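Lecture notes, continued. The same structure-token format from the folding unit now serves as the input rather than the output. Read the line below as a description of shape only.
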């Protein structure tokens, strides 16, 4: 890493040391305060950075190892013609990396854009390549958009107009001359990466309801179409609107630049690269970036932090994933959705419980994240008992905005509703890719009394005996050929979870009764949320209600449930803390680089959950109306009717 940075400095000196260019777009950009920065300022600076062969070489080597040896979907991603509701082209990561290696670049921007495009193509937000270098400025359109259906006809409307043009609720007819919905879908298909389901990608591109669990209010989040951390393709968008009682309105809106690196971070190209792009070296004492990259994607992200801990706490802290949703700048700014038809019953700072006024037999458990701990499980059980005392007999589990969290909660959330002492009933069979490096890592992990990583064999259960492993199952792999390509995987094992965190003596009118439980989702229930939903549905026959997408089409009830994710830095950190030589070097640039490290199977399936579209189809469908798009309580009412009136 130190060596890398020396080489890089030398390159920079060569590139910029000699004749000082008369105009350096990054000097201009660096001198402006954010309100005066335009799309062009950012674009010109980004595109003025020359390609660095040394950065490219390390990046290629590391990403090749990450995709080739760790990514559990390397070969599953080659699957052609995935059934509906998926529409997601096959991805051959190794072939794409070879193409990048052979391509001639002049701009650094284009090189990293190719890695971003490759990561996005998986349509799995767990898989990510985002350099801070080209994602630190934030771009925003003045309009929030939503799709609703009236008399069977779906149309795009303005949710909130911040341009002062009085466009609220106007129908958006076209964007850049193209049918507006088709334009957004085309954008989402190429750039969103939110889901393998195009209807879920549409939902993720538009406004969504969001519960702020800490401040106890409901608001809306910007969709991915409106708010970008990557450079938009053009400086502005042309819109045509149909507003009530007005002629067709035409408008062009520039992308506003609403955020960026702090003033003074850089003064020219050289300092832009040094201070915004290049990762701090180990010797400079900086911590490799963990939370600095901006994540404005439509779906929140999860990861598994490397945890230093004592073995006896292993079970509780293992295989954690935490959502970075709360850290991102797309959080809800203000309460914009009031809930007149719902009685607020109780809340902690992770979840909330409501009762519907128009149908008091219906209660709602709001689960906006899976990043909660034993105190929240105790709270949920208390809140559900309160609902039962109020004669609530049916429950909506509202997963709105839930992008995942701790994988043990996949097991524990369903256990609140369906008590069991069987640790494997609410667990998925999982498998890792196997390489000599990961075998060395797991052997060291098993031997270490002080370090536990995500890979620790002891935290998994043998699928036959249900006993925790005391031996390293990574040393006993199987060969598997998927889509014509062979690789070694571990045998399938179950995840473990502390069932005792759920007080199983507490029961409710809906305990063990799947007909009294439903799940509300817009398909962006991701990662641990998706896995928990799959347990409710595939193990217990709960029927989920999926809202949004396209009328007449099926919609996924969850996305990227394909298990656990780690950043390249975290994997390297695991090797370092166990004193095992890592198979790759840290990436030269700061950013967020993630791969999925193990995949899961639903029940006894032979196809990975992530690549099994049939497992994703929600039993019930619902479309937003102009009313439910603006009122979350009315959406609950519509969900109750959909789930229980037929
Ligand atoms: C934009 O620039 C003008 C002068 O060029 C300055 O007066 C103004 O304060 C700047 N605005 C912001 C938000 O920096
Ligand atoms: C959330 O609640 C827990 C337990 O009640 C408390 O420890 C924590 O500080 C709270 N967090 C916030 C952000 O209020
Ligand atoms: C949660 O677990 C911790 C130990 O990890 C314990 O001290 C605490 O009492 C538990 N809280 C609840 C509400 O069960
Ligand atoms: C699980 O236990 C069974 C029965 O003892 C054994 O045959 C099998 O090899 C074990 N699985 C793994 C992955 O070690
Ligand atoms: C998997 O196949 C490779 C090459 O085909 C072979 O070297 C390896 O031993 C096989 N592994 C197992 C577990 O059979
Ligand atoms: C479980 O809940 C029951 C009923 O509320 C209560 O009496 C008991 O103390 C609880 N058990 C634990 C371990 O908290
Ligand atoms: C729920 O089902 C479990 C497992 O079948 C059973 O042990 C438990 O007694 C049932 N509880 C209720 C309240 O029906
Ligand atoms: C929706 O999914 C169900 C179940 O998989 C299937 O039977 C039905 O044909 C699908 N409908 C459409 C419109 O694709
Ligand atoms: C790694 O090496 C360091 C320094 O030699 C040592 O202090 C530490 O205990 C080792 N860690 C493990 C997990 O072996
Ligand atoms: C999976 O298959 C095994 C062996 O055939 C069987 O015992 C088990 O019940 C099946 N599990 C599920 C969830 O279908």
């Amino acid at each position: 890493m130190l060596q890398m940075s020396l080489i890089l400095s030398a390159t920079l000196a060569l590139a910029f040391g000699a004749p000082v260019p008369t105009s350096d777009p990054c000097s201009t950009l660096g001198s402006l305060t954010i309100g005066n920065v335009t799309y062009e300022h950012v674009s010109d600076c980004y595109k003025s950075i020359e390609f660095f062969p040394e950065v490219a070489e390390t990046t290629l080597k590391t990403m090749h190892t990450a995709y080739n040896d760790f990514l559990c979907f390397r070969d599953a991603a080659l699957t052609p013609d995935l059934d509906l509701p998926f529409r997601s082209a096959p991805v051959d990561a190794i072939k794409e990396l070879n193409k990048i290696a052979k391509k001639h670049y002049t701009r650094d921007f284009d090189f990293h854009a190719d890695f971003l495009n490759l990561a996005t193509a998986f349509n799995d937000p767990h898989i990510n390549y985002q350099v801070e270098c080209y994602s630190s400025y934030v771009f925003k359109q003045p309009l929030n958009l939503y799709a609703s259906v009236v008399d069977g006809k779906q149309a795009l409307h303005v949710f909130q107009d911040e341009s002062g043009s009085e466009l609220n609720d106007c129908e958006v007819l076209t964007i850049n001359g193209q049918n507006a919905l088709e334009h957004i879908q085309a954008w989402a298909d190429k750039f969103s990466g939110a889901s393998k389901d195009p209807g879920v990608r549409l939902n993720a591109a538009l406004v969504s309801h969001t519960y702020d669990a800490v401040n106890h209010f409901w608001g809306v989040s910007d969709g991915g179409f409106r708010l970008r951390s990557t450079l938009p393709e053009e400086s502005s968008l042309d819109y045509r609107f149909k507003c009530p009682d007005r002629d067709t309105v035409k408008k062009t809106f520039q992308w506003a630049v609403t955020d960026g690196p702090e003033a003074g971070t850089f003064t020219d190209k050289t300092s832009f690269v040094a201070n915004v792009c290049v990762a701090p070296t180990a010797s400079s004492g900086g911590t490799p970036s963990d939370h600095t990259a901006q994540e404005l994607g439509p779906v929140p992200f999860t990861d598994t932090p490397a945890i230093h801990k004592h073995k006896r706490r292993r079970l509780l802290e293992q295989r954690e994933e935490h959502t970075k949703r709360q850290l991102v700048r797309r959080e809800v700014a203000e309460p914009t959705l009031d809930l007149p038809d719902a009685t607020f019953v109780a809340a902690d700072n992770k979840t909330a419980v409501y009762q519907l006024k128009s149908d008091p037999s219906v209660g709602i458990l709001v689960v906006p994240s899976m990043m909660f701990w034993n105190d929240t499980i105790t709270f949920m059980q208390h809140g559900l008992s309160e609902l039962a005392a109020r004669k609530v007999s049916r429950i909506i589990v509202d997963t709105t905005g839930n992008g995942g969290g701790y994988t043990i909660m996949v097991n524990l959330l369903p256990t609140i509703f369906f008590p069991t002492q069987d640790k494997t009933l609410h667990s998925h069979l999982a498998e890792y890719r196997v390489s000599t490096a990961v075998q060395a890592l797991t052997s060291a992990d098993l031997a270490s009394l002080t370090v536990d990583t995500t890979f620790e064999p002891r935290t998994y259960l043998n699928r036959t005996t249900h006993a925790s492993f005391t031996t390293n199952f990574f040393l006993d792999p199987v060969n598997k050929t998927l889509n014509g390509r062979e690789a070694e995987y571990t045998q399938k094992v179950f995840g473990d979870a502390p069932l005792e965190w759920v007080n199983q003596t507490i029961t409710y009118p809906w305990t063990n009764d799947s007909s009294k439980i439903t799940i509300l989702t817009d398909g962006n229930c991701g990662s641990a949320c998706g896995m928990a939903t799959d347990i409710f549905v595939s193990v217990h026959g709960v029927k989920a209600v999926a809202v949004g997408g396209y009328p007449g089409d099926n919609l996924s009830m969850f996305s990227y449930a394909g298990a656990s994710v780690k950043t390249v830095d975290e994997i390297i950190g695991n090797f370092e803390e166990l004193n095992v030589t890592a198979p790759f070097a840290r990436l030269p640039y700061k950013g967020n680089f993630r791969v999925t490290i193990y995949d899961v199977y639903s029940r006894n399936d032979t196809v990975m959950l992530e690549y099994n579209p049939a497992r994703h189809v929600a039993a019930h469908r619902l479309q937003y109306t102009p009313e439910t798009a603006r009122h979350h309580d009315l959406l609950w009412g519509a969900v109750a009717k959909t789930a229980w009136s037929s």
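Point for the exam: The mean pLDDT is 90.
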